[in-house]
Amino acid sequence: MAATNQSTGWLRGIVKAVPSGDTLVIMRNPKGDVIPPEKTITLSSIIAPRLARRGGTDEPFAWDSREYLRKLCIGKEVAFRVDYTAQTGREFGSVFLGDKCVEMLVVSQGWAKVKEQGQQKIEASPYLTELMRLEEQAKQQGLGKWSKASGASEASIRNLPPSAVGDSANFDTVRFALENKGRSLPAIVEQVRDGSTVRVYLLPEFQFVQVFMTGIQSPSMGRKPATETVAQADPSSHEQNGETAAEPRGQMTSAQRVAAVDSTEVAPDPFGREAKHFTERRVLHRDVRIVLEGTDKFNNLIGSVYYNDGTEAKNLALELVTNVRALWVVKLSSNISKHDALVFYFEWHVDMLHQLYCMDGCEVSAESLRSLMCFVIHLFDHLCCANLQGLAKYVQWSSTNLEEKNRKEIKAAEIEAKKKRIRMWTNYVPPPSDSKAIHDQNFTGKVVEVVSGDCIIVADDSVPFGSPLAERRVNLSSIRAPLLRSQNERPESYARDAKEFLRKRLIGRQVNVSMEYSRKVPVGGQAAQAAGTADSRVMDFGSVFLVSPLKTEGDDATSMQSIAGGQPAGYNVAEMVVSNGYARVVRHREFEERSNYYDALLTAEAKANASKKGIHSQKEPPAQHIQDLTNATAKRTKDFLPFLQRSRRLPAIVEYVLSGHRFKLLIPRETCGIAFSFSGVRCPGRGEPYADEALAFMRRKILQRDVEIEVETVDRTGTFLGSLWESKTNMAAVLLEAGLARLQTFGLDRIPDSHILSQAEDSAKRQKLKIWENYVEGQEVPNGTPAPQNREKEVLKVVVTEVLGGGKFYVQTVGDQLVSSIQQQLASLEIGEPPVVGSFNPKKGDLVLAQFSADNSWNRAMIVNVPRGASVQTQKDEFEVFYIDYGNQEIVPYNCLRPLPPSIHSVPGLAQLCSLAFIKIPSLDEDYGQEAAEYLSELTLGIPREFRAMIEEKDTSTGKTKGQGTGTVLLVTLVNVEAGSSVNAAMLKAGLARLEKRNRWDPSERKSAIDNLVEFQEEAKRSRSGMWEYGDIQSDEEDSAPPARKAAGKR
Q1: How many CA atoms lie less than 13 Å away from 53 in the CB half-sphere?
Q2: Do the Cβ atoms of 52 and 113 come closer than 8 Å?
Q3: pLDDT in tens, 596-632
Q4: What pLDDT, on a 0 to 100 scale, did the predictor assign at position 383?
Q5: Is residue 39 over pLDDT 60?
Q6: What Pfam families does this protein's entry cite (predicted)?
Q7: E strand intervals along 178-251
Q8: Are 69 and 132 in contact (CB under 8 A)?
Q9: DSSP string, 929-973
């Protein structure tokens, strides 16, 4: 065959692949991210034995020949020259590895023969004479294919399985994966289909399989027009060296057969070629270790590919997602710097580069090359530290087979690549998310209540007892337990078991809590959300760690092990729940906040699923039939009394604390729930002082604890009366000793521990605790007698923050710890740049941070009105906001709004709406309404003044707070502390208010208060002040008496 003489001079490159014993694929040294050009060079004037094609067998010594050349050259830098080119385009050349000629080495070891002179239809190698001499020498020594050993030729032919010669139909991948799962199998990568898929020979049986890398997926290489076969190994096999043979083909995969229906060519995905090149550079025709982890739903093998980079074994999947380019470091001494090593490396190459340039006829001085190298060193120093990511994406379904460390690294690298929009993530736009991260909110406390299998309430140790912030609801991050549902609905399977699992292990125990994210969820569920009628609430999620768990029956070893890797001291409660089969792991969307220990949760779920535990089992939990006697008739509860009195003491569980002395108990032995109250002990009633504190006290002490009870009798409302012990301690005595209850003398003789109860109450009286703070011996109301009707009114120390019309105004409590806590948190916030339009869309009723126009301070606010349209269009769109801590309202632009941090989101507004009691003040659109508002502002605002607000009544008829002037209204008598004067009286005296009508059915307290204010109104009338300027007036809005009651008649 004619040839064209195209000697192009000496070039350098890296051997990328070795398809056969006489062919090399050489690429230029890579520069940055650009895929370098490559050449396929067939060694001049020699022929190596041919490898097997589809359905065939190897020629003798073909595999040994290829292996010799592969191990000699793969991945190494070589110098080469094209000696001649055939008309078909195939290039033949001479290759040097260092100062040694590769074709001479191959021939000298007997792995190829020199073409006979008569076969030379094209130009020969310039080293032909030497090649012939080396061939003769190898024959004489019996080397390689010239071996004189008996049977050597037959032994060198591989016994290939069907999969290696294109017949993989009978290869059972599922069985093979099960038999070899977790084993490290030696292999040679023959092809790279795409960045995350390789085709390998598994040694020593030479099974030819395709392996998808576990946990990742690279961009697709597209699809070429379909044919019956697909390119496989050995593209260099030929009839004779110098003539091109058809490229061998392998059998199509199942996916390719499906794709063959459409013969349209599909271009590679962006960065598909880069990902494939990345993998080829590292593993193509290299020795690797394959660790099989299973198969996918199409029975394709999935596994991890490990290769040796010269220093250590590396996971190729991890390298694809996170690849930090290594520096060229020459280790001349133990303390050599990276920069000095680079200088040494390039200086060492100056002479070689100079010689190569001169060989091409270029006149370049060594000094010029040194100057060039200095620039390259600085550039390379910068490039080598760049984080090159984004050539594959994380695949969660298969990542569960990876080691936890690798799984975390791959996922973290993918998230980082997406954030930086690197390579395949250049145009990535994160999906909208309703979750927000919570940073630096860690606390310790005791578990007070288990709400469900994935939600608990923890009493924060750092918050004083009795504060509204003392108990914090924590939803366990990234897991979902079965729903308990309401009383009228049947709970999901294992919902009660999940709650009981946590109750036994957590109630009263010390835990460490790490808050991680908050999420807005619809109150009415998914149905209400779809209908667009659901309100939303913010839920806080975190990881909870049990400091010192008890080994409880039903726990396995995995649920009690601590997770490695920098978590707070203790045992992850969420992992315990999941590993015992009482919850599932939530599959989060991309960029959605999740547990910091998400991978450990996935591993625990996989183990629970494999063991068929709990919700993963095929059987339903044992049915629980509980008789609820809390709403039963008195007759039915009385009939049940003998069953509860058979045993002196009964074990029970406190399900709810209804008040300080009344509880709902579950009695497992009798499978019933009852209402239970302390016998002879009573706490303050609802609305009375210390009622809430007594309730909180007993929640901390006995809620969801295992207790013992002794039932004495049942009252006429169906509540069982008796004594209750927790850890052998009479809890009624504890309540009395804390000064939160009174002991009734009636029926005291039938209480077993009556002397203990009396001693506890006497102790509280001596110390004047709580309800006994004003106790004077001999003057207290006798126990068992009704208390006087005139209850002590609640008095608050307040400052007025905003005045409205009609006598309404907002106040803020003075000295409240909650007020100072909120103010400190707001002052410590770091306010960032205005949000990008579209990333933050406040809706009506949402709580946000808003910048007050008067002093540019940032305060909590409620959105009252939003701009027209579905979403924000510009930074100047206006929102009407109500400042919930001060009571004022204004219109602010979008760039003065920020999302409200979860830590202060759930705290109620600090501004309380009030109105002056017993008087009527005209509204702003009535006569003297404007003057009344100005005078009230003059009395209450301006110089900071402290007032004492005595609450006379509460008006809840306006419902929830929806903006300024809405919500619960306190009707108060407002007294200036410094002056000692009543604001109510001052408004009457100025003639800017009038008294409400006194009715005969009013309580005596109200009548007395109105009588005391009459003189101030009369003074205004006499002086013709304000509204009395033209004499007495009649109101059209006087309260009228209620309609007369109809006489009751017989049916």
Answers
A1: 15
A2: no
A3: 888 889 889 999 998 889 889 888 877 778 888 888 8
A4: 33
A5: yes
A6: SNase, TUDOR
A7: 184-194, 197-202, 207-213, 216-217, 229-231, 249-251
A8: no
A9: HHHHHHHHHHHHSSS---EEEEEEEEE-TT-S--STT-S-EEEEE
441 three-state secondary structure: coil
Residues forming a β-bridge with 39? 26
CA distance 237 to 248: 8
Q: Are 87 and 4 in contact (CB under 8 A)?
A: yes
Q: What CA–CA distance (Å, rounded) separates 264 from 286?
A: 34
Q: How far is it, in rounded angstroms, from Cα 524 to Cα 861?
A: 24
With CA atoms as reference, report the closest residue to 672 among 714, 644, 693: 644
Residue 112 CB neighbour total at 10 angstroms: 30
R_g (Cα) of the chain, nearest Å: 43
The set of residues, in sequence order, having a beta carbon less than 8 Å from that of 623 and lying 6+ positions away, is none
Give the separation between CA 233 and CA 236, rounded to whole angstroms.
9
Residue type at 621?
Answer: P
Determine the Cα–Cα distance for residues 230 and 247; give it in Å rounded to an integer: 10
Cβ-contact 92, 43 below 8 angstroms: yes
HSE (side-chain half, CA atoms, 13 Å) at 295: 15
Phi then psi for residue 442, to 5 deg, are -115, 140
Q: Give the Cα separation of 792 and 771 in Å (integer).
A: 12
Residue 864 contacts residue 963 (beta carbons within 8 Å): yes
Q: Which two tokens stand for residue 25?
A: 């694929």
Nearest by Cα to 1031 from 1039, 1043, 1040, 1023: 1023
The CA angle 634-640-644, to the nearest 5 degrees, is 125
Structure tokens at 462: 């750092």
Q: Which residues of 777-811 are buried (b: 16+ CB within 10 A; e: fewer)?
A: eeeeeeeeeeeeeeeeeeebebbbbbbbbbbbbbb
Q: Classify strands 912-916 and 808-813 as parallel, antiparallel or unpaired.
A: antiparallel
Distance CA 12, CA 28 (A): 7
- Residue with token string 């006149």: 363
912-916 and 969-976 strand pairing: parallel
As a whole number, the mean pLDDT across the chain is 79
Tokens coding 701: 């002490």
The amino acid at residue 986 is A
Top-confidence residue, 528 or 717:
717
The mean per-residue pLDDT over the stretch 51-58 comes to 83
CA pair distance 66, 19, nearest whole angstrom: 7
Q: For residue 357, what pLDDT band results from cuts at 50, 70 and 90?
A: very low
Per-residue pLDDT tens over the stretch 183-195? 889 999 999 998 8
CA distances for 834 relative to 464, 845, 849, 874, angstroms? 36, 21, 12, 11
441 φ/ψ angles, rounded to the nearest 5 degrees:
-125, 80
> CA–CA distance from 805 to each of 555, 591, 699, 937, 1017 (Å)?
64, 48, 43, 10, 20
Structure-block tokens of residue 186: 């030696």
Distances (CA, A) of 724 to 678, 712, 954: 7, 11, 37
Inter-CA distances, 567 with 409, 545, 547, 583, Å = 16, 9, 12, 21
Q: How confident is the model at residue 524 (pLDDT cuts 50, 70, 90)?
A: low
Q: Are 133 and 109 in contact (CB under 8 A)?
A: no
> Using CA atoms, how far apart are residues 889 and 872, in angstroms rounded to an integer?
21
Helix (H) or strand (E) run with residue 1013 in it? helix 1004-1022
Angle CA 327–330–333, to nearest 5: 125
Q: Please give the angle made by the CA atoms of 382, 387 and 392, to the nearest 5 degrees.
A: 145
**97 has a pLDDT exceeding 80:** yes
- Closest by Cα among 106, 97, 114, 307 to 198: 307
CA angle 357, 363, 368 (to 5 degrees): 85
